Amino acid sequence: MTSQDHKKMTSTFMSNYILGMVSAQPTIPISLIQERISGQLNYKVSYFKAWKAKQKALARVFGDWEESYDLLPRWLEYMMRFSPGSHYEFVTTDYKDQYGNVVPDFKKFGRVFWTYKQCCDAFNYCKPMIQIDGTFLYEKYSGTLLIATTQDGNSNVLPLAFAIVEGETLGAWTWFLRLMRVHVTRKQGICLISDRHATYEPCSYLFEQRLAAFRGRNTAVRQWINGISNEKWSRACDVEGRRYGHMTTNLSEAVNKVFRDARKLPITALVKCTYGRLVEYFVQRGSAAAAQQRAGDRYCNKVMEAMTKNATVAQSHIVRTYSIDRSRFEVEEGFNQ
User: Fold this and answer.
1) pLDDT at 202
2) Helix or strand or coil: residue 327?
3) What does the radius of gyration of the chain's CA atoms come to, in whole angstroms?
4) For residues 272 and 261, which has the higher predicted lDDT (pLDDT)?
5) 162 contacts 224 by C-beta, under 8 angstroms
6) Are the C-beta atoms of residues 300 and 290 closer than 8 Å to each other?
7) Pairing verdict, β 191-193 and 129-136
8) Where are the beta strands (DSSP E) in the chain?
9) Mind listing the pLDDT tens digit for each residue in 144-193?
């Protein structure tokens, strides 16, 4: 075998090896590709060559950027066969040629929304709180990925729904929230946290001072603020605890970081990545919950830790009953004898 033949065979084997990695993990970092090739094949590959090979592998798996848009509806239909009850929805516009004439056989992509039934079912057992946030897409085409996120009783993050839209416009957000109300949950009394506020004030007195100063700017601002209840502005006024201690969209921002690399992929690869990550989530969390049940735990770890902590603190309190039906008590800090 000539050196040229050996080089060609090595290149082909390496391409197939990278194809396998990308098929299993579309968001695999270039550095990890280099590391695996070096360890498995004893061959050093430059960052640029590994990047180029990954792009070719992505095109083979998901099609190129244009073809990926054609593939997406078929992949979503395929996904729904294995996840019945999930939902997706497209918005398209007419495609026009260079002369402004509508081409009947083609449509232009506008928006796409998708959610998985397992996430919608799980939300029934989570906090009635949803955080929403948007983040830019990278690479060839512009757009924004919208994500709705919640949190379960064990403080685990759960993505609920996704959408790819033209940007964080009023129309895009209205469309996204409407579809969530129809296809994710019809539960009432949900706390919706939409964006990070410029200020954070846990003290109700200082909050009232700052809000009064804000109201004094002009009549229009005062009228607008007066139409919004204080608990929607500050955690200090959330006497019912509907925010569950959350002031910002930190949950959605955490999910955005998880899908950071996926935002560089063709659209079908991005959507497929959300499916794969959520499969991992349910397998891991389900296994952990099953182990807790086998161990005889009645509540999740977070609740058990809080109950243990509160029980320890309560040992130094004195409780007196103040009603025959034991519905009223007096609690005094001190030490039980």
Assistant:
1) 66
2) coil
3) 26
4) 272
5) no
6) no
7) parallel
8) 87-96, 102-115, 129-136, 144-151, 157-165, 191-193, 317-321, 329-333
9) 999 999 988 888 889 999 999 999 898 999 999 999 999 999 888 888 88
